[in-house]
Amino acid sequence: MRSRGTAAAAAVAAFAALLVCASAAAARPASVLSVSVDPARVATTLGRTSTVRSTITNHGAATTEGLIAHLNVLGYDSGVYVDPEDWSSHRTRYLGPIPPGGSTTVIWRIEAVNAGRFAVYVAVLPRRPAAGAPTTGPAVELSVAKRTTIDSAGILPLALGIPALLGVLLLGLRLHRGR
Amino acid sequence: VTTVDAVARRPAEVGWVVVLGQELRDLWWTGRALLFLLPFSVLLSVIAYLTATNQALNYLEQRETVNLTLQVAVGVGALLTLVAAADAVSGERERGTLEGLLLTPVSRTEIVVGKLLGSLSLWLASFAITIPYVWFLGRGIGITGDAITTGLVVGTCLALFLAPLGILVSTFAHSNRVSLSVSLLALLAVFAPTQLPASALKGGASDLLLRINPITAGLHYVGTIVVDGHAWTDDLSWLVAPVLAAVLFVVVAILGGRHLRLGEAPG
Q1: Would the pLDDT of A13 be above 80?
Q2: Between the N and C ends of chain B, which has fewer C-beta atoms within 10 Å?
Q3: A148 interfaces chain B, CB cutoff of 8 Å
Q4: A165 vs A23, higher pLDDT
């Protein structure tokens, strides 16, 4: 009797667990969108502009409307400050309708403003906040090589030289006129 | 001081050329121009030194620094031009040399043109001093050529707007003090919108204000090329106000110069 009761309880528990999983899956359905990026890796130099293409594909049975694609940039190294606005001035794009099985491509221009290793990724989300979680594409690995843009050692001759030259000219003029 | 002798002894030469020559001698040979340019170069040196030794600046901030250097050069260069122009007629009147100048066989228009070009020499000199700084800061990021050309075009338009303004005020002011005060107040008024926070400059009315003000429009145009990397032709509409102001004020200053009178020097 006891073992039969235990088995029944286990069956009920298993059924309940199935119900919970099913209801959870219904609350957060698998996304019908996918985001791919090309290229997967970019190696560039400080100050250069690179282009990344992202393709948003609708795998669902209905046309998707009101989607927003957003580009984000982050640094892998904690010491490097990243302001995504510096890297791309148009990081938010409002997409048109995508038919079932169709896709749309968004091209992002990214200017490398810091040297180091960075991740660039695209997230697509619906305009209605309650319509679901964002769909995120794979991160593009961005390696930015350092390039010397200012020779700090060379500034002193210039910063001191020009005022000194003007000062000498002024002094010479005063002395010449004073004779 | 445009002396009577300098103008009267050269009847074969064009009048405004003689006035210009005398103005240049007065401005440069006395060392007055160098006195203006020395602190100007110190200011640019401080900006360039702070930028070049700041390792935390990223690539975009370097472009902004070139833009800042150009804006300082254009702003201070225009100020020097205005100060020189504001002294041009009222200074002569106050020193008692205007009467002799008016008696020479040179038309009033030629006097104004000669003095106008003389004061513009300060702008050209201040821009020549700016070039090494812009070259140093901009060479690593490849914007030296664009920055220098844009700064020269916009700065010359603004100098051609402010120098005639100074001459015009100076023509009708009875004292140098009044001429300089009014000119500097006018300069402050047109420069004030450049200091407004970005949040206050959103909307159609603000955009219109920025576009019709020659200073804000000119400096904005410099920024679009130097910082944003836009092409020369992308934002040409921002150059309309500086160019129109330059043409308009040169014409008004020359027309106003015809009414140049001896007036009374303050006692």
Answers
A1: no
A2: C
A3: yes
A4: A165
Convert the pLDDT of each residue in A84-136 to its tens digit.
888 888 899 999 999 999 999 999 999 888 888 999 999 999 988 777 788 99
DSSP chain B: ---HHHHHT-TTS-HHHHHHHHHHIIIIITSHHHHHHHHHHHHHHHHHHHHHT-TT--HHHHHHHHHHHHHHHHHHHHHHHHHHHHHHTHHHHHHT-HHHHHHSS--HHHHHHHHHHHHHHHHHHHHHHHHHHHHHHHGGGT-HHHHHHHHHHHHHHHHHHHHHHHHHHHHH-SSHHHHHHHHHHHHHHHHGGGGS-GGGG-SHHHHHHHHHSHHHHHHHHHHHHHTS---TTTTGGGGHHHHHHHHHHHHHHHHHHTT--------
Instruction: Label residues B134-164 b or e (16+ Cβ within 10 Å = b).
Output: bebbbebbebbebbbebbbbbbbbbbbbbbb
- Sole residue written with tokens 């190696």: A43
Of A148, A167, A170, the CB nearest to B140: A148
| The two three-digit tokens of residue A79, written as one number | 């010491």
Of B38, B132, B140, the CB nearest to A149: B140
Per this entry, what is the length of chain A? Answer: 179
Phi-psi region of B175 (alpha: psi -120 to 50; beta: other; left: phi over 0): beta
Q: Is A167 on the interface with B (CB under 8 A)?
A: yes
Number of Cβ within a 10 Å radius of residue A21: 10
On the question of pLDDT at A144 being above 70, the answer is yes
Largest CA distance in chain B: 62
Q: Which residue among B31, B52, B142 places its CB closest to the CB of A170?
A: B31
pLDDT band at B4 (very low <50, low <70, confident <90, very high): low
